[in-house]
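The following block was generated as part of the benchmark described in Methods. Ligand: Z5A.
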Amino acid sequence: MSGRFITLEGGEGAGKSTSMEFLQEYLATTGRPVCRTREPGGTELGERIRELLLAPEGEIDPRTELLLMFAARQQHLAEVIEPALAAGSWVLCDRFTDASYAYQGGGHGIDPQRIAALEDWVQGSRRPDLTLLFDLPVRMGLQRASSRGGHADRIEAQGEAFLERVHQAYLEIARREPGRVRVVDATGTPAVVRRQLQVLMDEFVGAS
Ligand code: Z5A
């Protein structure tokens, strides 16, 4: 049986990492083998690229940022995602190419056609089977992230107007692809968010 590719997307502090635990447990109870991973990262090389991308010091040109995201993604697909799917695992990935459209496209204004060209080159026909978009107003996400403590990384530190463009770009993707992208209202308590995930996953697993 071939695996399924599920991605989690959303703005800063939207609750993806928190929900990852629930999704992993959910799939485990259905007996599916699970591969949990993230972008940028997921491989040794990808994690090193992640460190470069998120380090708060220094400037990175938006095009360099985009190309580094796709360099990490290429390695991730070759080393982790494709082998896991071929082996029948269900891959849960914290962020994927929608984040490039939202942050580098929506946030930095890079032409989406450039991103689409990289997507086609790097991924071939590979696209997520399901994307869970955690939708949360930017201010709420920033509050949640700051309550967690620690320093803002380079991308988080771009400011509220940037993050608002990212938010709108995500919503636009969801409007364009309602079959793949399911919007999760992330404003509720963790228990309320989990109940939505349960319904969406019951539906997706039932149809798979
Ligand atoms: N990026 C990009 O630009 N282009 C790309 O192509 C890709 C990525 C792939 C990765 O950073 C950065 O890379 C990201 C986009 C960019 N930049 N930003 N910003 P990351 O993965 O480390 O950061 P993140 O994705 O933004 O994760 P995050 O800030 O850790 O958010 P989260 O995982 O969605 O949230 P969380 O950690 O689960 O929750 C945040 C806090 O809220 C935490 O204290 C929780 O306990 C709390 N929380 C969670 N859920 C709730 C609810 N329901 N109620 C109340 N409190 C809650």
